[in-house]
Amino acid sequence: MRLPLWFAERAEPASPESELRVSTIELFFDLVFVFTVTQLTTLVVGDFTAPRTGAHHFAGQGAVQTLLIFGVLWWMYAGYAWLTNAIPPRRTARRVLILCGMAGFLIMALAIPTAFDGGGVAFALGYLVIVVVHGGLYLQASTAIARVVPFNLAATALIFAAAFTDAPWSYALWAAALVLLWTSPYFIGQRGFALHPAHIVERHGLLVIIVLGESIVAIGIGASGEHPSPRLIVAALLGLALTAAVWWVYFGGSEEAAEHALLRVDVVRRTQLILGAYFYAHVPMLLGVVAMAAGVKKAIGHDHLDIGPSIALAAGVALFLAGDVWFRRVLTLRSGTARPLAAVLAAASFPLGLWSSAAQIGALVVLLVATLAAERPA
Question: Which keywords fit this entry according to its UniProt record (predicted)?
């Protein structure tokens, strides 16, 4: 059967030297992906709620599940981001396939809360959809990224196997899938990925903004059903201030510096820098926002926090700062000792939450503002 013309047309890759901006369908795709990420807060919060019992439950189980699920999700998000960077989604067929990929992410989002407890098959099916659609995009264009498809399919098979396996072997299969995906660049090589720096910088910047919105949503969820008392309003404003300070950490410097750092190097070196700065270094930043949002959600409406939420709040800010330091060092952007020190101090802030949730959030805001002020040129 012949494919219709609108589907079979091949899109030519855009030159890496040409200007490429993020399209609206990519932003739409990111909104669905971020919903998938926000579902991970249910696993983190699960560590703070009813105690887990039974042979297959253990302390920190939600955190481990979050790391494994996020790891495989982030790999495929990057796969779509790199693909649309190389081949802009301007044709109807490409847009339709991206919409199908969004459906796969939505299926996974719905399955995340029970991915290790009965919902593994649904998650694996959603993952299979995004992997197949990702591979199907090469009906439109063939690029070097196609070499990762066998690795993606093998990892999907491992996730399917995990759905039919009890712990601890299910965790081992998930971990094997994650290792297979994340090490694949070193097996397939990094040549031939002619990426557009401006698009990469803009796409990930927009993603960070959308994910930070989860912290604002967490404020609303935490305040749900509460009377807007002065105490609640102050707590909500502190949560907003913390999110704003984290935003400033990421975007407060020259927004063009990262793009210039990528443009100064050759294509192969550029791919290595993008892999280090925008794939690996963004992992702790995004996980940090997830943990921070889980802590803020528990802090709103409560005078003090239990040990779990207070640690999540402290660790979330610390992870974001650590990822930002990593990101800046990969791209050799201006940085000093203030941010690494702030990451350590943020991690040590959790005892404050046991006394007062407002005190911990307020201290983290002051810490971030002081860090940013210390970095300002004299």
Answer: Membrane, Transmembrane, Transmembrane helix
